[in-house]
Write a structure and sequence with these properties.
Shape: globular
Distance between the termini: 20 Å
Largest sheet: 4 strands, antiparallel
CATH topology of the largest domain: Jelly Rolls
Radius of gyration: 20 Å
CATH class of the largest domain: Mainly Beta
Strand content: 15-25%
Length: about 300
């Protein structure tokens, strides 16, 4: 059974203020997304975002994967994230800070900007670009106007129209920047690094359905034995550990939504039954699914 989520019609903001490296997926709460980027761990599993967003680096630097491409972003760089992008933190500096604005898919789909469609294809292929101080200031000013208008949606008879036009202005500003500047080039890795990164990317799409190493090895036309050797060599962990870790990330994400029963979650993750899911979850977390949920922040 697939879980249907209630669509929302308005802009959803990742942050109302300047934040430290905060980037959020639609199925993650803000605290979880914040921890994802700011924690200094080496086990950051990629996550798929469900919204459109812009992110401006205000200080420090970071290396991230967007889908299967790697980028090094520094102070003054802009990243444009499209719905269903897969984001992974590779590394970051301690002073990494940024500013972001995000809107859900349902809202963005209502805004039609025909003259920029070809440009958006270019942006999706080249999502990171450096900004001048004036360009950065302009984007943040428009974003702040959008945030302010969002807070006053019920106070203006044409609030929806105002919001649409502000978002259109933001889109045109970004397209204008891309017509004037050269995008940031992606970073390149060794073949073994590429195999490992593609594996992590695939996990975000397939871990609910496929838990066998052979599936991921076949995706890259490798034998399971050689594939497992590369994953162990590059990460220090066996491939099966990464698969199980990805399942746990998805399970915790779903458990934080109290509208879902444990049975529904076990079906969503393709476990034979809730009991089997409970055993798996406790083995890898030390607590039962309900025990974990009772300590979670509620997601409406």
């Amino acid at each position: 059974m697939k879980i249907e989520r209630e669509p929302e019609s308005r802009v959803q903001f990742i942050s109302s203020d300047v934040f430290r490296g905060k980037m959020c997926g639609a199925l993650l709460d803000i605290d979880e997304a914040y921890d994802y980027l700011v924690n200094d761990d080496d086990e950051a599993i990629p996550f798929e975002i469900e919204f459109a967003a812009v992110f401006i680096c205000l200080s420090g630097e970071a290396e991230i994967m967007l889908d299967t491409k790697a980028y090094r972003i520094n102070k003054g760089d802009l990243c444009v994230l499209f719905p269903h992008s897969v984001v992974q933190k590779i590394r970051k500096s301690n002073d990494f800070e940024g500013y972001a604005l995000g809107a859900n898919i349902e809202y963005i789909s209502k805004i039609q900007i025909p003259s920029t469609m070809n440009h958006f294809l270019n942006i999706s292929e080249n999502p990171c670009i450096s900004l001048s101080e004036e360009e950065q200031k302009g984007l943040i000013e428009i974003s702040n106007l959008i945030k302010e208008r969002q807070r006053k949606m019920n106070e203006h008879p044409f609030a929806e129209d105002v919001m649409n036009n502000l978002l259109m202005a933001l889109c045109y500003e970004i397209v204008g920047i891309y017509t004037r500047r050269k995008p940031i080039e992606q970073q390149f890795y060794s073949r073994q690094d590429t195999i490992f990164r593609k594996f992590l990317f695939s996990l975000t799409k397939n871990c609910k359905e496929h838990r066998d190493v052979a599936f991921y090895a076949n995706e890259q036309c490798l034998t399971p034995r050689y594939f497992s050797f590369i994953i162990k060599e590059k990460s220090g962990e066996n491939a099966i550990v990464w698969i199980q870790r990805s399942i746990m990330v998805e399970a915790k994400k779903l458990l934080s939504n109290r509208q879902l029963t444990v049975q529904q979650i076990s079906e969503e993750l393709n476990f034979p039954n809730a009991s089997f899911f409970g055993q798996f979850f406790k083995k890898h977390s030390g607590v039962t699914p309900l025990g974990f949920r009772n300590g979670c922040k509620i997601i409406a």
